Amino acid sequence: MKFCPNCGAILEGKLKCDCGYDTLTGEVDENTYTDFKNKEKSLYEQSCDNISLMSKTNLNNIVGAKMMGINSNLSDEEILNQIT
What we know:
Elements: H1 30-57, H2 62-67, H3 76-83
């Protein structure tokens, strides 16, 4: 099995995924999975905080917005509309 059926991560020969999925038994350790979900949620919230902080402090920083992951194919005006 190349990918974890529970979270989609690459297994690369692991017997147990970081999300708690055991490849031998096909079961998920609920405690590990809860911790994994909380960690992923906090990483997502931090990235959202970074984008909102950027929009409050650097309204005209188009280059910074592109570096933060906003679609660089958008025009500068469209990027400013998204971050303000």
